[in-house]
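INFO batch 0412 | record 1 of 1 | parsing
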Amino acid sequence: MDTKTTDEQLLRAFVKGDRASLGELADRYEKPLLGLAGGLLGARTRACDAVQEAWLRVIRHSASFNGSSSFKTWMYRITINCCRDLHRKRVPRNSSDEQQRNLKTQTPPEDDLIHRERNSELHEAISALDRTKRETILLCYHDSMNHEQAAEVLNIPLGTLKSRLHAALNELRRAMRVEAIR
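INFO prediction complete | emitting tokens
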């Protein structure tokens, strides 16, 4: 299908039996969803599991999509819910050590050691945020959604999103200053 075809049109085509439409949706959303899930779960394998489960839910429930929100909003909600489900099911043995290992594998190799260290500290600080603040930060900054879109994905009022974002940014600023002093 051509890129001018909307997500909603692709989903309707999939419901009618056009399997290629789902492939087009996956091409559009797979990478950002993996980034979001990776930020929420901290591990690439778990992120892949969450996104795979999200696509399975889309397949199972595609016919019930009512269009009250955009496909993108619906897909992000499903992915966040899958991440929450995976997080709840998991019983960490030593989550601090595992988070450190996961953060190291997520940080891309770069020439500048200082930049890598700072990036790792930022990932660690984001991982330390509570779930609601972490989701807010990742949607607004990692996925570059505007505040209205992020509020819609999280199904919260705009004011609540802004309040969470403000609190999350303040926490990150404090954490990064503390880390920088060490």
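INFO post-check: The chain has two domains: 1-91, 95-182.
INFO record closed
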